Automatic annotation (TrEMBL):
<dbReference type="InterPro" id="IPR004653">
    <property type="entry name" value="DusA"/>
</dbReference>
<keyword id="KW-0694">RNA-binding</keyword>
<feature type="domain" description="DUS-like FMN-binding">
    <location>
        <begin position="17"/>
        <end position="315"/>
    </location>
</feature>
<keyword id="KW-0521">NADP</keyword>
<feature type="binding site">
    <location>
        <position position="72"/>
    </location>
    <ligand>
        <name>FMN</name>
    </ligand>
</feature>
<dbReference type="GO" id="GO:0102266">
    <property type="term" value="F:tRNA-dihydrouridine20a synthase activity"/>
</dbReference>
<feature type="binding site">
    <location>
        <begin position="213"/>
        <end position="215"/>
    </location>
    <ligand>
        <name>FMN</name>
    </ligand>
</feature>
<feature type="site" description="Interacts with tRNA">
    <location>
        <position position="188"/>
    </location>
</feature>
<dbReference type="InterPro" id="IPR013785">
    <property type="entry name" value="Aldolase_TIM"/>
</dbReference>
<keyword id="KW-0285">Flavoprotein</keyword>
<feature type="site" description="Interacts with tRNA; defines subfamily-specific binding signature">
    <location>
        <position position="185"/>
    </location>
</feature>
<keyword id="KW-0288">FMN</keyword>
<comment type="similarity">
    <text>Belongs to the dus family.</text>
</comment>
<dbReference type="InterPro" id="IPR001269">
    <property type="entry name" value="DUS_fam"/>
</dbReference>
<keyword id="KW-0560">Oxidoreductase</keyword>
<dbReference type="Pfam" id="PF01207">
    <property type="entry name" value="Dus"/>
</dbReference>
<feature type="site" description="Interacts with tRNA; defines subfamily-specific binding signature">
    <location>
        <position position="303"/>
    </location>
</feature>
Amino acid sequence: MNDRLLSMDTLPHRFSVAPMLDWTDRHARFFHRLLSRHTRLYTEMVTTGALLHGDVVRHLQFNAEEHPIALQLGGSEPTALAHAVKLAQRYGYDEVNLNCGCPSERVQRGAFGACLMAEPELVAECVRAMRDAGEMPITVKHRIGIDDIESYDFVRDFVGTIRDAGCRTFIVHARNAILKGLSPKENREVPPLKYAFAYRLKQDFPDLEIVINGGIKTIGEVQQHLENVDGVMVGREAYQNPVLLTGVDAILFPDLPGATPASDAELVAAYRTYAVARLAEGAPLSALTRPLLGWRRGSAGSRHWRRILSDSNRLRVNDLGVFADALAALDAERSYASEDSPVD
């Protein structure tokens, strides 16, 4: 069995990076794949309307190295979602995830996202249509409640209804979604985290795969959650502090081959090769360097690394020299810090 199938079949959602609009584009996902071979990656949310009326290639194209990769869909019309699943299968995605957790007003106007939790029968109908349209797994990402609904029974009944439609994997953002009065950013921070709700879902539905999401920032926290659920999804911490991903394979997938490259120089060389190919396709260098800005955050040289990779004058002319210069600045600052350290 090849490494990809071994990872997907044995530990499909043990660790993943959340779908984040305007963040987890194909460039970020390629960079994350360089850091972890077995982390499951998710696209930004793509609406069914964008696939019905927009540029399908732009929305669905990804790099072969990104496997295992899931497409997250936003929508509430079963026929449109089924069509999107057929497209996803044609493009080779490993999973399609239905968004039932986004609280933004724009998403609500489209009658999908977290507001769908108030209509579990509709979600079940959507899941059935999606499952009938393709052979890949259909998963659901949701909150534990909406607005002032604080009862565990609400999310338990929601999961039970969708389970009966054939969904086996639920990604639980362990906060309520406040549909009016809070911004999407506030919805990620203000409603209290209730990890116990996700733990109870695993107890009540032992046959389901329950993945927990929300406020998780360290591998230590990931390991603690894995004592109670099947998987952990990390959000902005993986993007803002991507060094987090470097320990994932060895710690969470010890029986599977790990990721390469092992050094910053190898990492930059691999990503630069990727950047050259994307520049040839018309991608701007600014979009390509953005996922790298948080690399080595807080360590010696990270400020100079960010400054060089975000230099607007150099980015504007697609100056590929920024990669070598940023790495040199990182190495120089580390060397200086090492020489300045006291010797016992």
